[in-house]
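Exercise 7. Given the encoded structure of a 123-residue chain, write a plausible sequence.
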């Protein structure tokens, strides 16, 4: 496809919502992040979804099951004396010291085993 033809076709597609009645275009949504920042509350919910690369059992470690993990993951498990304990049963990877300080200041909670119904076991 030639560049000129592509630009003409793209222009027609982009302008279609303007030509049709009932479609509203806006550069910013009605409730933007900027409006949310000015809210009274300072509470924030942060969800982190990692598509690969993170080993959850080496980021947030179940200390009460360390021996079981050591039996099956001895080649990749963080040594027990390097884990940053946050409770009697849960610890953090040593690289997550900043996360631990947020937890210690009661500015962070960790929700484990969060799932959804009808999982397809894709991972």
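Solution.
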């Amino acid at each position: 496809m030639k560049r000129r033809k592509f630009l003409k076709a793209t222009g027609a597609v982009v302008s279609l919502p303007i030509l049709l009645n009932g479609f509203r275009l806006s550069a910013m949504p009605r409730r933007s992040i900027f409006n949310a920042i000015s809210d009274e509350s300072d509470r924030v919910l942060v969800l982190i979804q990692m598509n690969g690369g993170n080993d959850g059992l080496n980021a947030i470690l179940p200390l009460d099951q360390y021996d079981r993990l050591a039996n099956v993951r001895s080649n990749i498990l963080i040594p027990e004396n390097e884990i940053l304990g946050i409770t009697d049963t849960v610890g953090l990877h040593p690289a997550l010291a900043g996360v631990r300080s947020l937890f210690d200041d009661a500015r962070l909670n960790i929700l484990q085993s969060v799932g959804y119904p009808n999982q397809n076991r894709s991972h």
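Remark. DSSP finds five helices and three strands in the chain. Students should compare their own answers with the one above.
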